[in-house]
From TrEMBL:
Its EC number is 3.5.4.19. The lineage of its organism: Bacteria, Pseudomonadati, Thermodesulfobacteriota, Desulfuromonadia, Geobacterales. Belongs to the PRA-CH family. Pfam families: PRA-CH. Its cofactor is Mg(2+); Zn(2+). Catalyzes the hydrolysis of the adenine ring of phosphoribosyl-AMP. InterPro entries: PRA-CH (IPR026660), PRib_AMP_CycHydrolase_dom (IPR002496), PRib_AMP_CycHydrolase_sf (IPR038019). Pathway: Amino-acid biosynthesis; L-histidine biosynthesis; L-histidine from 5-phospho-alpha-D-ribose 1-diphosphate: step 3/9. Homodimer. The gene is hisI. It comes from Geotalea uraniireducens. This is Phosphoribosyl-AMP cyclohydrolase.
Length: 125
């Protein structure tokens, strides 16, 4: 783990999360040394939330956890791709399978949202 250059990116590196079978990009989050270490040790994905300024394990509230299958880094050692088995129907907090459901079409962003769960019900906000 010492090869990962957290300092270059201000202490956080981007983590691209992919379905290990389909390679579908499920989400992008940020990791620091502690969350990458926790991910490697536990086999579950851990991240640092910049908006909430806290550590979190994917699925700790929703139950939609991720089992780590493979971890790769890029040639500069400043980002990671984590291939996972997605437990539960969705990786996105909006209830969608992937966070990437909005597409640029004909000069505008168009949502192709198909929630698999109701976030209001799951997160009780």
């Amino acid at each position: 783990m010492s090869k990962i250059d957290f300092a270059k990116m201000g202490g956080l590196i981007p983590a691209i999360i992919q379905d290990h079978e389909t390679n579908e990009v499920l989400m992008v989050a940020f990791m620091d040394e502690k969350t990458l270490s926790s991910t490697l040790e536990t086999g579950k994905t851990w991240f640092f939330s910049r908006s909430r300024n806290k550590y979190w394990m994917k699925g700790e509230e929703s139950g939609n956890t991720q089992d780590v299958v493979e971890v790769l880094t890029d040639c500069d050692y400043d980002s990671v791709v984590i291939k996972v088995k997605q437990n539960g129907p969705a990786a996105c907090h909006t209830g969608n399978r992937s966070c990437f459901y909005t597409r640029w079409e004909n000069g505008q962003w168009v949502e192709h949202s198909n929630p698999l769960f109701d976030p209001e019900e799951v997160y009780k906000k």
